[in-house]
Design a protein that fits this description.
Structural class: alpha/beta
Largest sheet: 5 strands, mixed
Distance between the termini: 47 Å
Oligomer: single chain
Helix content: 25-40%
Radius of gyration: 20 Å
Shape: globular
Number of helices: 9
Order of helices and strands: EEHEHEHEEEHHEHEHEHEH
Strand order of the largest sheet: 1-3-2-4-5
Length: 315
């Protein structure tokens, strides 16, 4: 099935200052993470041995985030900067490269070989949404572990232990998502979302991405003609539901659902950010659980909760 070309959707963006994820400690390495997803993984690996600051707050779209003066100060103080790369966070990357700090900069997402997305006119760009596969997240965890060990060699054992436990849980998560998607009837394994952030998820878990409202970023206004083409395509495809996303204004996709006569899934998907504390997607793993549940239930599958089976200590 031909992929529907994405278009831009208006976005209400909340500007925010960097938020520290744990109390300040003495003599701890200063680590800065750009996206909320990387911040969550870095905190799991680094634990109490690092002082972690996340630039983006939950729910903020990294594609269009405009840095504030506090971001410069945080980057200048950093010993290590962990960012996604593949131009996910262009504003922060530009500021990071212009800031004359001492920090080592590690593009955590770029350890994954990217999918290439067609921008039209023969131009393609790397898809930055690499965390859509839990196995890719394992590669990101390994990169974070190695960067932290280089930063603080005396904490090697703790970083390694934390990363090993997280990796085991991510592998369980990957297997569980595969099983969940397989419960969706084959003719309904088709995903239409607000923006093109789920190609890695689709590839890893065998669900076809058949259409999006916008491309990989959020830079243009949608035309009425393109919206109409998407509505017509949805009618042809016959999907039972389409999906909004938590970081993007849902107004237009709600209209598309109404005009196409299709249900808008009751739970939006987490795409470029984890959720706020206390939400169903407050960590990377919970985000992937919540997305999978939303997809499975809306497309006619049978959802079974993720049952973590963590190893015993010293096992």
């Amino acid at each position: 099935m031909k992929k529907i070309i994405g278009i831009l959707l208006p976005l209400a963006l909340l500007s925010c200052s960097p938020s520290e994820t744990q109390p300040k400690g003495e003599n701890k390495p200063e680590v800065v993470a750009t996206s909320t997803i990387i911040a969550d993984l870095a905190q799991e690996v680094g634990g109490e041995e690092i002082q972690l600051t996340g630039i983006l707050s939950p729910g903020t779209d990294p594609h269009v985030y405009e840095p504030v003066p506090a971001d410069s100060r945080v980057l200048e103080k950093a010993d290590l900067i962990l960012y996604n790369g593949y131009n996910l966070e262009p504003g922060i990357i530009k500021l990071m490269n212009a800031t004359g700090g001492k920090a080592r900069k590690v593009a955590v997402g770029e350890v994954v070989k990217p999918l290439q997305l067609d921008k039209g006119r023969g131009e393609s760009v790397p898809d930055p949404h690499v965390w859509g596969s839990a196995e890719n997240a394992i590669a990101m965890v390994n990169a974070i572990r190695e960067a932290l060990i280089e930063l603080s060699p005396e904490d090697r054992e703790k970083f390694t232990q934390n990363a090993t436990q997280l990796t085991q849980e991510l592998q369980q998560l990957h297997n569980w998502i595969q099983q969940q998607i397989q419960t969706i009837p084959p003719n309904k394994r088709k995903l239409i979302t607000t923006h093109d952030a789920f190609q890695y998820y689709g590839n890893a878990y065998k669900i076809k991405i058949v259409g999006t409202l916008i491309g990989i970023s959020t830079e243009e206004q949608p035309s009425a003609q393109t919206v109409k083409q998407l509505v017509d395509a949805i009618k042809k495809i016959g999907v039972p539901a389409i999906f909004a996303e938590t970081t993007i204004n849902p107004a237009l996709i709600q209209t598309v659902a109404q005009e196409a006569g299709v249900k808008l899934a009751p739970n939006p998907l987490y795409s470029d950010s984890i959720g706020a504390k206390g939400s169903s997607g407050e960590t990377y793993i919970k985000m992937m659980e919540a997305n999978t549940r939303a997809i499975v239930e809306a497309l006619g599958g049978k959802y079974t909760p993720f049952n973590r089976q963590l190893p015993l200590p010293n096992s």
